[in-house]
Amino acid sequence: MLPLDPANARKLFGEIARPALAPLTCDDALVYDLSDFYLTLGAVVNGGFSQKERSKNDHLNFLSDYLGQAASPQEVAPLAQLIQSAGVTKQRREGLWVSLGGFLEYMQTDNRSFSASLPSLHFPELENSLEKYRQRNHACETDSSGPASPSQGGAAAVKKASTSNPEAALLLRRDPAE
Fold first, then answer.
1. pTM for the complete prediction?
2. Which residue in 30, 132, 27, 44 sits closest to 74, CA to CA?
């Protein structure tokens, strides 16, 4: 739809209910993976606005709206990747990094989501915010040194899961710390 009718694609994407993620416990073996949702958001931000709309920063406002409503550490890495690929000026990108960093610094999260988010948070632009995030939150006690990344032999199995919101294409990823 995006290449054929960008405005309609943007409208349809806006009708998708935003991910509402229930807090997880340390007993949960699966964690949320929102990469498909945010890859699609990135495609809409980069290709769903006319030049006239882009000159008015409509694409930036669209992205900022989603950034401002993020509520889970599982959203940080996909949002950071989106910021890296967003078709915005360097100055605008820096503003987006500041917004995401502020969100990360003050985020209160459950221990499982915190543990699962750490391996994917390797963005130099978020270094200071990430340190504050680590200081404010704690991993599950069963996670000796946090979850292993796939390169360290951690589980990388991803499976499709049925959710109450299939349009958002949420995936669940097996938590390597189980």
1. 0.73
2. 30
Each domain of the chain, given as residue ranges in start order, spans 6-174
pLDDT tens track of the chain, all 178 residues? 888 899 999 999 999 988 788 889 889 888 888 889 999 999 999 999 999 999 999 999 999 999 988 888 888 889 999 999 888 889 999 999 999 998 888 888 888 888 888 888 888 898 898 888 888 888 888 765 444 433 333 332 232 333 344 343 333 334 444 4
SS3 state at 46: helix
What own/partner pairs with CB < 8 Å and gap ≥ 24 does 11-14 have? 13/40, 13/41, 13/44, 13/48
User: Is the four-CA dihedral 133, 32, 99, 86 of positive or negative sign?
Assistant: positive
